[in-house]
Design a protein that fits this description.
The protein is an alpha/beta fold. Helices cover about 40% and strands about 15% of the residues. Helix 4 crosses helix 7 (about 215-230), helix 5 (about 160-170) packs antiparallel against helix 6 (about 170-210) and helix 19 (about 645-655) packs antiparallel against helix 23.
């Protein structure tokens, strides 16, 4: 097992190094010693170095460390070395890597030995039991076919339709001409056939009398095999295939041109151009095409299905890539077979001892088998798909990577209460399943408490990061060192909510959960708290756009229509060529990724089944126990946060028995005195803001604020927003009854 680490970006060159490389950019504080930069148009290429200040020149002593720096007055042209380096990058290699690299040559050699030895063994085993009976069975039919073909040739059977046509047209002259031609042909061909027959018979007799027995047997075997091959049916060849071959043909420029004509991307005087030759690229063909002037990559995307039909392939075998150098240049990759139906294999996380969640980790492969690395830093991710397409498994792979970093805090909630996430109880700081209370535990309230706890932590992080010393937090941002310092208690956090629509549609807490998730998805990633929501119903009712729009990254597996794909991936994705509805039912675990990096494309996520997840999480728990980072529900610690409906009990406690109606402002002031930790911030609000805050907190329980008549401190009567005590009592009664029934 290996530790998965990815090296970070190279450190910037220090200022001293810059000064050493570019000494002419520094000047003395006095005008007399200022280094003058010549104009680019006045200096020949060979004179650039000659006009730079000399380090030994006394007048250049002012160009010392700490002197002021003037910006360059001219843009220098690229050097010859830079020009040659650019040409080297654009030049195609003479030999492929598997020829030049010793390890790849060794791998190819091993593959060739293994491949061809298997094929030889396959046919050797079948030679006496399958191939020989086939030859003996088909050889009489082959002899008959051969003799019939020779007879048709000798007697000029192919000219018979012409002679019959001359008779039907009553053209005597043409018929006599064709008859004389036939007679001449039959006479000549008969002589040739007779001579060949005598020569063959003489050779056979000579071979029978004079040749050794082994040579005679080989000749008979060759003749019998030839006759058997001639007599074998077209759909039942003599020799079986040692491996399954997929429908593959050589792609030519004529086929590509035909495809563009069928897609109506070319006109009478407008043709495509090929800036580079068509060639093999992995398990497919790479074709770069310049469309006619006026046509764009978007036009090719819209004609995707017609292009595939013109190439006589399935649409899932054709992939389009945009070329940034030209708006009309398109790069096609045509796979030999549907690459998305090929499983991507087991997750490399199964062989990893630990993961650094600050660095990208393997999540899957693209359509060509290239690794796709994922990173959840500074973003939120939305995963959408129809049921049974691998949505949960894809999201769980990311959570497994987070689990293998002992310094990452996990919060996991599963709205459908499936077995897929149960093993995360070993490592999750907060975890819950389903929406139905069981044994006195309400998972929805637990989610609300966890999100409220996390919201308070996010707000606290912003304050603390801005107050840390510069040598610890130089830019006011979270760093790996800060996140791993147990004293600061600001670890990277991953919030996973699977089937989020179940929680958002909860009759009591749905609105509260929505508001909290919107806040966290929008604000929390900047301080190291990433949110990953997954849903099979991404519509506005089940998963409102106010939440979807907060996710910077989107991953859509197969969906029902391009409109739903646009909802998951974001508006305008369809026009960019991203349409998850084109994925087939067999493409499990395959989706379109957008927003995680600059590139958008297909990801075939790695597989980690239930047993694999159990193995990884056992290792993750051991890591956390060794590092002392196991916390929360996984460590058996009770949540320090208040229950979601605690406000009902608190309001009931601050209302007097004789008070039927009380202003909201008065209730908030009493709550702040009753529980400063919970309601202290409410007291700092203005009068109307206090009423709005109380109304929002009581709304999930069906309590509305109405106009209430009361008196101010001066004794003057006034109408203000307030609540009725009886409404609070009714809400508490309903809550207690629900708990008793569950």
């Amino acid at each position: 097992m290996t530790e998965m680490n990815v090296s970070g970006p190279p450190a910037e060159a220090p200022e001293e190094e810059t000064a050493r490389v570019l000494p002419f950019l520094r000047k003395e504080t006095t005008p007399a010693a200022t280094a003058t930069v010549p104009d680019a148009g006045e200096v020949k290429p060979g004179e650039w170095e000659a006009q730079l200040p000399d380090a030994d020149d006394p007048e250049a002593e002012g160009l010392a460390e700490g002197a002021e720096v003037d910006p360059p007055t001219a843009v220098y042209p690229p050097s010859v070395a830079e020009w040659m380096e650019a040409k080297d990058k654009a030049r195609l290699p003479v030999l492929p890597d598997w020829v030049k690299l010793p390890d790849q040559r060794k791998a190819v050699r091993k593959w060739a030995v293994r491949h061809y030895s298997t094929m030889v063994g396959y046919h050797v085993v079948r030679l006496p039991t399958i191939y020989t009976p086939k030859v003996l069975w088909y050889s009489p039919r082959g002899a008959w076919r051969w003799s019939a073909t020779v007879g048709r040739w000798v007697f000029d059977v192919e000219g018979k339709p012409l002679r019959l046509a001359a008779v039907a047209n009553e053209d005597a002259g043409e018929y006599l001409k064709l008859s004389r031609q036939r007679n001449d042909r039959v006479r000549l061909r008969g002589v040739i056939a007779a001579i060949a027959g005598f020569v063959g018979l003489a050779a056979a007799l000579t071979l029978y009398v004079m040749a050794p027995s082994w040579l005679l047997l080989m000749a008979m075997a060759a003749l019998t095999t030839t006759l058997g091959a001639v007599g074998a049916p077209a759909d039942r060849p003599l020799i079986d295939r040692a491996r399954v071959t997929f429908r593959k043909r050589r792609l030519s420029s004529d086929i590509v041109i035909r495809a563009h004509e069928a897609a109506k991307l070319t006109g009478k005087d407008q043709n495509i151009a090929f800036p580079r030759p068509i060639g093999r690229d992995g398990d497919g063909w790479r074709v770069v095409v310049d469309l006619p002037y006026g046509k764009t990559f978007e036009d090719a995307v819209k004609a995707h299905a017609r292009l595939a039909s013109g190439m006589d392939i399935a649409p899932t075998q054709l992939f389009l890539d945009k070329d940034e150098t030209s708006g009309r240049r398109v790069s096609y990759w045509i796979a030999d077979r549907d690459p998305l139906a090929v499983p991507s294999g087991k997750s490399p996380l199964l062989g990893a001892t630990r993961v650094d969640f600050w660095k990208p980790f393997p999540w899957g492969v693209d359509e060509r088998g290239n690794p796709v690395m994922a990173s959840m830093l500074w973003l939120s991710l939305l995963v959408g798909a129809v049921p049974r397409q691998g949505k949960t498994f894809s999201a769980r792979t990311i959570a497994l990577a987070a689990a293998l970093d002992p310094h990452v805090r996990l919060i996991v909630f599963d709205g459908k209460a499936s077995p897929d996430w149960r093993s995360f109880t070993k490592v999750a700081h907060r975890i819950g399943f389903g929406i139905v209370p069981r044994d006195g535990f309400d998972p929805v309230e637990h989610l609300v408490n966890a999100l409220m706890e996390l919201k308070a932590d996010v707000e606290d992080r912003y304050h603390r990061l801005s107050e840390l010393p510069l040598h610890i937090c130089p830019e006011g941002k979270l760093t790996p060192e800060i996140s791993r310092d147990p004293k600061l208690n600001m670890p990277l956090t991953l919030v996973v909510v699977d089937e989020v629509q179940e929680y958002l549609q909860h009759p009591t807490h749905g609105k509260t959960i929505l508001d909290l998730l919107v806040y966290l998805a929008r604000v929390a990633p900047a301080v190291g708290v990433s949110v990953m929501n997954s849903t099979q119903k991404p519509d506005d009712t089940a998963c409102p756009s106010v939440l979807r729009d907060q996710h910077q990254a989107r991953f859509s597996l197969r969906v029902g229509s391009w409109q739903v794909s646009d909802v998951v991936l974001g508006a305008g994705s369809y026009s960019e060529g991203l349409d998850a509805s084109k994925l087939l039912k067999s493409h499990k675990g395959v989706g379109l990724l957008k927003g995680m990096s600059d590139d958008s494309g297909i990801v075939r996520t790695y597989l980690a089944n239930g047993r694999d997840a159990e193995t990884v999480l056992d290792r993750a728990r051991a890591l956390r126990e060794d590092e002392g980072t196991l916390s929360g529900d996984a460590a058996g610690e009770a949540s320090a946060s208040r229950s979601a409906d605690a406000i009902l009990d608190d309001v009931a406690a601050v209302l007097g028995r004789s008070e039927d109606r009380v202003w909201s402002e008065t209730v908030v002031n009493r709550l702040a005195e009753y529980s400063p930790d919970a309601y202290g911030e409410w007291a700092a609000l203005e009068g109307r803001a206090k009423a709005d805050q109380l109304a929002a907190a009581l709304k999930p329980y069906g309590i509305k604020t109405d106009q209430v008549w009361g008196k101010t401190e001066s004794g003057k009567g006034a109408n203000r927003r307030g609540i009725e005590r009886q409404h609070i009592i009714d809400a508490v009664t309903r809550r207690n009854k629900t708990r008793a029934d569950s």
